[in-house]
Structure formats: C-alpha cells, structure tokens
Design goal:
Layout: E1 9-10, E2 17-18, E3 23-28, E4 34-37, E5 46-50, H1 53-61, H2 64-69, H3 79-100, E6 104-106, H4 108-116, E7 122-125, H5 131-148, E8 153-155, H6 160-167, E9 174-177, H7 181-198, H8 204-210, H9 218-221
Parallel strand pairs: 7-8
Antiparallel strand pairs: 1-2, 3-4, 3-5, 6-9, 7-9
C-alpha cells in the first residue's frame, strides 16, 4: 500500500488524529522552553496540538509538553496568546507579499468597481470600517456575482492600523485581492487563525461557523469571517 506523503498527526491533548494543516507543531527550544513552529519547518522532534487556543492553553495547564518530550519543560503561561500573534503575523506577512505581487486594489471606489466586474476574490475590510460602506460593497459584490457567478470571500478581522503596517499605506479601510496563489495562501492562513481563535468548542468547522456574522445575504454567509467585531466606525476611504 502506498503511504500518504502527508500523514496524520496525533494531538498530545486530545489524542485525536488530524492532518498537519489542522494542527500546530511545537519543538523544544535549546533553552528548554517550547517554541511554536507554525510552518512546521524547524528541525528536531516535534509534538502536535489541534489548532485551537483552548487546546494550547490546556496543554500548558496539564504539563502535556513535559510528558510528550519526556523532559523538564516550562512553556510560557501565555503560549496560547503567543501562537495567536504568530498566526496573525503570518497572515499579514502573506498579505504584504500579495501586495508586492500587485494583487491588491485599494480605496472604496476602486474596490467597488472591481467588485462589480467580478475581479476580486477576497474582500478585505478593516474591523472598524463603517456599516454603510460594507453594505454598499455587498451590493457591488452581488452585481459582480450576477456577471461572473462568483461571490468574494470577506476578511474583516484586521484593524486599519494592522493593514496600514502590512501594506505600507495609511488609512486602509477597504482592499480587494485578485485571484492568485498568494490570495489563496492568505485566505487559508486567515481561516486557520479564525479556527484557532474559535477554540475547541464543537470542532474547528463548527467553531468557525459560530464566529460568522451575517452580512444580510445568505450567499455571503459561508464566506464571511467576522470574529464578532461590532464597532461601526466611519467610512473614510
């Protein structure tokens, strides 16, 4: 029988098996601490935990790392939060690469026009953006959907300041990503971050669904990762 090139890993907390993409690898650092390896590239023996902040925190509380590595290890009490920051940074770095590749469109008017032409695969909205602007862009996206049959995925989990720093611009409220490999990579990393934050409750997919916020259009529900932000803000771009 031919072995899979991507075998499943076993979570040291739940003992459940899953694909590496659904888990996070950790290695023992030279100083005896635990180092997250979110790209699964660091050398040495690693252990795996389901991609959930709840599970990482539980592993710290229950000393699961020491048992798995069979060594005295003192993971950071804030390890779950540190992993969150790494995953978030990974998303924003990938977005920066997509920008350098010329895949991004900026500004409300330009984004709306591109949406109506069906040229945007992922719509990025600052968390503090205004509801009126979101509503108008949904309308543009629906017109583009009527033309192309495709509705963009929507990512509104980053603040304007985070987007500014990642993209080297100021006051980024709306941006659109054209289709491409880096766009797919960015969205897959965002999905991983959302699942991580959703926690272990009901599993990753169900947790992701519980964090979706309706955009008043059933066709967009499956694409929206809202993470619960409710601050309407103002439209400035």
């Amino acid at each position: 029988m031919k072995q899979s090139s991507n075998p499943e890993r076993t979570c040291i907390v739940t003992r459940r098996q899953d694909s590496p993409e659904a888990m996070i690898r950790f290695v023992r650092a030279p100083d005896g601490t635990v180092a997250p390896d979110i790209r699964a590239r660091l050398p040495g023996r690693g252990v795996w935990i389901g991609a959930s902040a709840d599970l990482v925190a539980e592993a710290v509380r229950k000393r699961a790392f020491a048992r798995s590595f069979k060594a005295a290890i003192e993971p950071s009490p804030a390890l779950a939060h540190e992993v969150d920051l790494l995953l978030e940074t990974d998303c924003l770095q990938t977005l920066a690469l997509a920008n350098k590749a010329g895949l991004l469109i900026f500004g409300f008017g330009k984004v709306a026009t591109a949406l109506e032409k069906g040229e945007i695969a992922v719509l990025i909205e600052a968390a503090e953006g205004g509801d009126d602007g979101r509503r108008k862009l949904r309308q543009s996206a629906r017109r583009g959907e009527a033309l192309t049959g495709s509705y963009p995925k929507i990512v509104p989990i980053f603040t304007s300041n985070q987007l500014d720093l990642a993209l080297g611009r100021t006051n980024v409220i709306h941006a659109g990503l054209a289709a491409g490999g880096l766009t797919d990579a960015f969205f897959s990393r965002v999905a991983r971050l959302v699942r991580y934050r959703a926690g272990e409750r009901g599993g990753a997919d169900e947790g992701l669904g519980s964090r979706m916020q309706s955009c008043k259009d059933d066709r967009a529900k499956g694409n929206l990762m809202r993470m619960g932000q409710q601050d309407p803000g103002s439209e400035t771009e």
